[in-house]
Specification:
single chain, disordered C terminus, globular, 139 residues
């Protein structure tokens, strides 16, 4: 199901709250105040978070150029997050354009959760303290 303005905003808030917590659990150092980019094991990565029912995550084309990997943190039925890594090059090969209109049009590429599960490497399963995260979509 495509996002609308409200589900997109909820997904954005969810990712901005969740990615730093997952990054901390992984031992990553945040390197940007405006995005969920981190330094992990000497590599520049982004952490993209998705709720249980979310089927893809997106990265801007511009951001992808400076990354070495994309970490997809996908919520699991027990509330933990399965964190899968794919290289930035693999993300680029697998992405499809988002259906965004307006200012976001032609800026974001999406990759399906199944591509992370089938082609990616499981980095960790992360349980966040106080699983009281706000409902939302993906970011």
């Amino acid at each position: 199901m495509p996002q609308d303005r409200y589900t997109g905003a909820a997904g954005n808030a969810f990712g901005r709250e969740t990615a730093p917590r997952i990054g901390q659990a992984l031992g990553a150092a945040r390197i940007s105040k405006t995005s969920n980019e981190f330094r992990l094991q000497g590599r520049r990565v982004v952490i993209k978070c998705a709720r249980l029912a979310t089927s893809s995550v997106g990265v801007t084309y511009k951001m992808l150029e400076r990354l070495e990997a994309v970490l997809g943190a996908f919520e699991e039925p027990d509330g933990r997050f399965g964190v899968y890594e794919i290289s930035a090059a693999e993300f680029g090969r697998r992405m499809r354009p988002s259906q965004s209109k307006g200012s976001g049009e032609h800026k974001v590429g999406l990759v399906a959760k199944r591509d992370f599960l089938n082609r990616g490497r499981l980095v960790s399963r992360v349980a966040l303290p106080d699983q009281a995260l706000k409902a939302g979509g993906d970011t």
